[in-house]
Specification:
Methylglutaconyl-CoA hydratase, Enoyl-CoA_hydra_C, 2 domains, 2-enoyl-CoA Hydratase, Chain A, domain 1, catalytic activity, Enoyl-CoA_hydra/iso, Enoyl-CoA_Hydratase/Isomerase, three-stranded mixed sheet, 10 helices, alpha/beta
Length: 257
């Protein structure tokens, strides 16, 4: 039986996916990648899941690709070809994904953090794009990282490989919040509680809207957004939300208890 490197649990509508390979700093080995993909698929397909939290055991969130497996062109190419599918799963998930970091992230691990909708880290967590120092290029992770980062910071950090902390990560747009270690779980819970208040279809549509390419003209953009707005106002979910507001109660999709 294969070793379980990624755990999955659901409580009150929150699916927690935990990287548990501390012996190699939660590196993205082929086994870990496969289990992570399976659990992400399960979370998206499960109607009971409203929000996904991606977290870890051990002192490191994720150190990036497993370099031991990446020795040799064929092994490296296999990892490079598979990793984008994981980033895309997170980026396009119809359900919000929250990264919980109690420790550092490097290279591909930072790509995962950037793919998540919200990221919360302990203040002393560190980050680095170490690829250039290994003679490789942070190409794949740039797809999720560059939309988050301030351009000047992206040039600096991609080219130098310099280590930076969570407070800097907040300043440049990579992370939403940097908190004390004893406040990490409460801050993650604050976000998941807020996210669970949103209608599932509305959250999925809002995520799709946020990542869409904008129309070239204002008139076309407004027309597209008017159609999107009208469709959700008229939907069963939208009407339930409006009724709940008028009746001063929680909508049917808000988890009980």
């Amino acid at each position: 039986m294969a070793e379980e490197l990624v755990h999955y649990a659901v409580e009150r509508g929150v699916a927690t996916i935990t990287l548990d390979s501390p012996h190699n700093r939660n590196a993205l080995s082929s086994a870990l990648r496969g289990q992570l993909r399976d659990h992400l698929t399960h979370a998206v397909d499960d109607p009971a899941v409203r929000v996904v939290v991606l977290t870890h055991t051990g002192p490191v969130f994720c150190s990036g690709m497993d370099l031991k497996e990446s020795r040799g062109a064929n092994a490296q190419q296999q990892g490079v070809n598979e990793f984008p599918a994981i980033l895309e799963q997170i980026w396009t998930s119809p359900k919000p994904v929250v990264a919980r970091l109690a420790g550092p992230a490097r290279a591909g691990g930072v790509g995962i953090v950037a793919a998540c909708d919200i990221a919360v880290a302990v203040a002393d967590a560190t980050f680095a794009f170490t690829e250039v120092r290994l003679g490789v290029v942070p190409a794949v992770i740039s797809v999720t990282v560059l939309p988050r980062l301030l351009p000047r910071a992206a040039h600096e950090l991609f080219l130098t490989g310099e280590k930076f902390d969570a407070r800097r990560a907040v300043e440049i747009g990579l992370v939403n919040a940097a908190v004390a270690a004893d406040a990490l779980d409460a801050e993650v819970r604050r976000y998941t509680d807020m996210l669970a208040l949103g209608g599932p279809r509305a959250l999925a549509a809002t995520k799709a809207m946020l990542r869409r390419e904008r129309a070239t003209g204002l008139a076309e953009d407004f027309a597209d957004m008017l159609e999107l707005s009208a469709r959700h106002f008229a939907s069963e979910e939208g009407q339930e939300g409006i009724r709940a507001f008028a009746e001063k109660r929680s909508p049917s999709w808000v988890p009980k208890g």
